[in-house]
Amino acid sequence: MSDIVVPQWGLTMEEATLVAWLKEVGDHVDEGEPIAELETDKTTAELESPFAGTVTELLVEENIDVVPGQVVARLADD
Asked: Signal peptide location in the record (predicted)?
């Protein structure tokens, strides 16, 4: 099991909004594949999966604020 966490984008990033999930529970993702869209006060960017696997949990609803280091999804290892 691998956790997907919100990255620290820039020194001043304190929070972001998880705008949209691009994957659902049961979907396979490859390493580097976008899994969600995050919006900060400066930009909207894709959150890429650092691992390959199958999405087992999405821990945050869309349009909810998240902070760097927060676990937002879990993948089962392939």
From this structure: none
Tokens of 29: 């993702």
Q: Which domain holds residue 10?
A: 2-77
Both tokens of residue 12?
A: 């001043």
- pLDDT tens-digit profile of 32-71? 999 999 998 878 899 999 999 999 999 999 999 999 999 9
> What whole-number distance in Å separates Cα of residue 72 and Cα of residue 66?
8
Chain-centre distance for alpha carbon 44: 13
Q: State pTM to two decimals.
A: 0.87
**Considering its fold, how many domains does the chain have in total?**
1
